[in-house]
């Protein structure tokens, strides 16, 4: 029996306060090639089949199945798993999480998934697990993400209009990013918006 797992990644975001788009945010729920604090590396294409099977996904508060707070749509791009979330502001917990996002207290996204295909590998002298195929169950905002290198760059409470998702300004993503300072530099280049 496969056991559901979670993977956390800090994200940068801007919340929109326009009437029709309150509670909307975008960012990355996973970045390809980054070694996380669990020693896992998510490979490009790992989510492809799962996205076709189920999208959008439930958005839960910190992986608690009894606390759904909205929905989140995901897609793979060159950098990772791009996410567009919509907090359901008719749900009190979603209102609270939105407020904490604006304040900067909630800065992470985490994926709930099942590993379907993986293999052991190494990066430098570090043993890693290469995640090749994952079944996504949900995406959660969290307080303590596993990938601590990414930092919030900007939090805005109002935007003149909701901007469309743009592709990241990165032309190539290395297969595996070995050094934390390289991961931090890559994440700075991605220019997340939420």
Strand order of the biggest β-sheet: 1-7-8-3
Percent of residues in beta strands:
35-45%
Helix/sheet category = alpha+beta
Low confidence ranges: 148-163, 168-174, 184-194
H/E series:
EEEHEEEHEEH
For the sheet with most strands, the description reads: 4 strands, mixed
Task: Report the strand count.
Answer: 8
Helical segment count: 3
Measured between the Cα atoms of the first and last residue, the distance is: 36 Å
Question: Helical proportion?
Answer: 10-25%
Main traits of this protein?
194 residues, alpha+beta, 4-stranded mixed beta sheet, 3 helices, 15% helix, 37% strand, globular
Would you write up a description of this structure?
There is one protein chain. 39% of the residues are buried. The longest helix is centred in the middle third of the chain and has 12 residues. With 194 residues, this protein is of the alpha+beta class. It contains 3 helices and 8 strands; from the N terminus they run βββαβββαββα. It has one domain. The strands form 2 sheets. Strands 1-7-8-3 form a 4-stranded mixed sheet. Strands 2-6-5-4 form a 4-stranded antiparallel sheet.
Question: How does the SSE layout of this entry go?
Answer:
Elements: E1 5-10, E2 24-31, E3 40-42, H1 48-53, E4 57-60, E5 68-76, E6 80-87, H2 92-103, E7 108-123, E8 126-142, H3 180-190
Parallel strand pairs: 3-8
Antiparallel strand pairs: 1-7, 2-6, 4-5, 5-6, 7-8
Brief account:
Helix content is 15%, strand content 37%. The chain contains 3 helices and 8 strands, in the order E-E-E-H-E-E-E-H-E-E-H.
